[in-house]
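Work package 3, deliverable 3.1, input record:
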Amino acid sequence: MEYVIEMRNIVKKFAQKEVLKGVNLKVSHGEIFGLLGPSGAGKTTIIKILTGQLQCTEGVSTILGQDTAALTSFVYRKMGMMMDNLGLYERLSCYDNLKLFAKIYDVPQGRISEVLKQVDLAEAAKVPVSKLSKGMRGRLALARAVMNEPELLFLDEPSSGLDPQAVTMIHQLIRKEQKRGAAIFLTTHNMEEAGKLCDHIALLNEGKIVEYGSPKEICLRYNHQNKLQIRLLDGRNVVLPNGKFAADEVKEYLAKEMVETIHSTEPSLETVFMELTGRRFE
Amino acid sequence: MKNMIAIFQKQIKDTLKNKSVLVQFLIFPVMSIIMECSIHIEGMPEHFFANMFAAMYVGMAPLVAMSAIISEEKEKNTLRVLFMSNVKPTEYLAGVGSYIWVICMLGGCVIGISGGYKGAVLLSFLVIVGAGILVSMLIGAAIGTSSKNQMAATSLTVPVMVVFSFLPMLSMFNESIEKIAKITYSQQVSILINGMGKSGVNLENVVIISCNLLAAAVLFGYAYKKSGMT
Ligand SMILES: Nc1ncnc2c1ncn2[C@@H]1O[C@H](COP(=O)(O)OP(=O)(O)O)[C@@H](O)[C@H]1O
Ligand SMILES: [Mg+2]
């Protein structure tokens, strides 16, 4: 098995509405893969197909080498999942929520406190879920998703609606999971997050993958301008072509210690994706 | 088996904090104790309140609890998370079902004892109640499985439960209702309990309860096939 996730020509129709129009995707072992797209693009639908919660209309998809139309316990035991509706037991405490899954996954009870600590919920262990903030609920769902040390982790918008501190913690946990050897498939509409966290990203727009690569590759690909932007200490802004013709001028500024900042003008992921989709993500 | 026990234990903790289900389990046993202890009218049949409440309990508590628990798990998406963690639908149903059956049997025990039943008679009382609980649970499971959320489940549960739990009581006062009510399992439970030590069990009782059980199982099977529990 070369890839942990493969989707080939996936089409999904809801009634007459075609939500996915031939999606192709590959995710390798141990990588953090980000699926980006504006809301309504079909990100959740893709996760649901991959985890066997929905059947696709056409095409073939596999995870961990198994067809997603007929997943078996072999795969269920090796995957973790956090969906947008978290699926927590409201009346049970954080600890009791995890205890149920510790039994189901056959992991020792000690693992419960371990994962609670990892998401900084150790002090809230006895608090019922109904009394938790949105951010805490998200973290609890994440703790449950990594409980069984999955080989493949699905996270549907893990950081949406969370405060910056919680986001940082979630990113740390995701990196830790990667170090342990897990592959992570996450969706987000936050460019900055995707750029920092992901090894590869794919942009989904109107049911199709319109761009794929590492964040850096993608930005470079859209570097149409290919210019250097120099801000001088005297306040002037100089824009030069990025080439040997500019070398003397740049050298001169540097030699005279006139440079305040110097940038290449390659676009950010955000501007690339706005160019591609014609709209701003929210 | 391990998953079934995990669900069973989860359910114990959850119900202690779930007032609307807890009330279902407690109300008739408590009413039965109060009435049996406080009201004695000349010429009233023996075990009157215990028998009446037992039949109502059978038609109400297991049905409402089963449907409420399943539909809530569907609504809150917890059921899906369980299935994606390698819990089989049969394991889930066995866990929740065995839990409700055990609790309702305890409730039945309280009602029986409050009515003054002892020894072998108490045992027959429990066998009859236990069979009735099973039918109610299957009907509740069918409703819970076919409903998208708790609201939808409740709007189906209430009329169904009123019919089954009140028919036995109404039959005491109206003969034409009694004739129709005979084909329901809850009325048969009532007949059997009232006949304990007198008329005993005849084929008709067994056949009707079995038919009810079968019909409820078919109903559940249909609901399960249609919605697949998620
Ligand atoms: N069960 C469904 N029935 C009909 N339409 C659906 C269903 N689920 C999703 N959709 C539609 O599919 C599109 C993609 O939804 P979704 O995958 O949730 O988008 P995203 O997660 O990218 O925001 C939306 O237009 C949504 O309305
Ligand atoms: Mg979504």
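Chain B has a mean pLDDT of 90.
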